[in-house]
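Listing 4. Sequential folding, example run.
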Amino acid sequence: MLRRLLAVGLALVLAGCGTVAVLLYVWSADSRAVAGKKAVTVLVAKERIPAGTSGERIRTSLAEVVKMPASSVPADALSSIGADLDAMVVTSDLQPRQLLLQGAFGPRSRVTGGLNVPPGKIAVSVEMQVPEQVAGYVLPGSKVAVFDTFNILNGDGRIPTGDGLASKTEINRATRILVPQIEVIAVGTQGTDGRTSSAGSAAAEATDDDAKTNSRKNAKKQTRTLLVTLAATQLEAERLVHGTQTGALYLALLGDTSAVKPGPGIDNKTLFP
């Protein structure tokens, strides 16, 4: 009888120890989970905030305070916007509910007209059509080369005639690299109604037959017109602007190992090997 009582008592003691151990483990796990999800206060954008918006304006009307788990918040997330950021601006667009980060702010001089223009460069926009813009794969931040196709003065050499791409059988046309490498900072569709633009223009002195032929050719080439904005030096901007006035520009998307160099280009006489 005594042995049975001792056995029952020992079993109760072991059961109690097991229960305490389980409770301690659960409490410890809960503590670890709570610690990992500790809430912190951060700022998010109430609405879309365009590049160039000042810290003062964001602080007074465009930011909202929320709480998020500490483990999911970047180290430079802002919990408030201090006076040191009032004169700064966001250098790129912020989307609604996006976290406000210290690194999103920069000097006002880096942003012009809502664009983040690299130091020492100017923004210049050139009109492109979808095929010439690499079928839409060119995006802000892309590095591209710009080619120029133009009619050759007197049919030889590499001097543009200045008449755009007037089409006649006796006209010799050339294509050359205009800018070997340049950065795209914006790509925008011109107009919102999906209007089209013809790829070339007929010569003023063309005959009626020539005009009809050109009209058919141009109708096939009609497509959406895009504005591609590039970060250019003054010389690059001059070349781009002049190229749009005297010929037609094409973009080539560059990769990390792309090698593009200025050269004589090709024309109707040297197109084939």
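-- end of first protein; second protein begins --
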Amino acid sequence: MDSRRQSSAKPITHKDYKSDIKPVWCPGCGDFAVLNAIGKALAFLELPREEVALVTGIGCSSRIAAYTSLYGFHGLHGRALPLAAGLKAARSDLTVLVAGGDGDGLSIGGNHFIHACRRNMDLTYIIMDNEVYGMTKGQASPTTAADWAQGKLTPRGTGIRPFQPAGLALTAGATFIARAFTGDPNELARILVEAIRHPGFAFIQALSPCPTFRPEQMGWKRQVRAFADETTADPLEAARRIQSDDGMSLGIIYRRELPVFQPGAPAREPAAAIESEFRL
């Protein structure tokens, strides 16, 4: 353990990682539990706040960076992962967390998601999946069931099969894949600890009910259960488990150690040398 942490008179708690800004999420939103789980995981790992960065995109869940006392970057819609990759490339010493929603991460950010999985940089990505666009008032997202017919833009349903986030992550090359439920924040925190410790790209699908636009999701607490099998390092076995599941089983599905991509930070050239390249 770091000597700085041993000498601390006051033990670190999850509250030390929260800011003074009050969340504006709707009462009952699962994202509150993700905020608490991040704090609990970081406190368990005793990570100093200045050694952690949280990068987010746009949406209800992406507001989470402002509610922490960590270094944060609230980026553009769907662009959290490339921002985080750039930060990790320049500052490999930082623990870099990325957070967003199913729309932010799998729709406009879908291309960045699959390439982040295959690149396998040492990042931890949490998608708070409520199967709806909450901030823009209830449109269907990439994980919304085809027959969900309550959105104003899709009153008869989308008619399009939803993404399976864990399956997509596995196919694209993520080396740590888990599914958690915000109704069990302690288990979510435990999975987060394992994800942060994992060397490589770790993906967590956090089932996060939306009480405002998807009130029926409050029944998820009666549907979720733990995966019957232990974590596997075999991608074929992981694929079988994911494809045969209804999306309600929880736990670390797949974990495998492969080479981590960490590009070297570019050398800093004097400004005059850079300017000389553009002189006519």
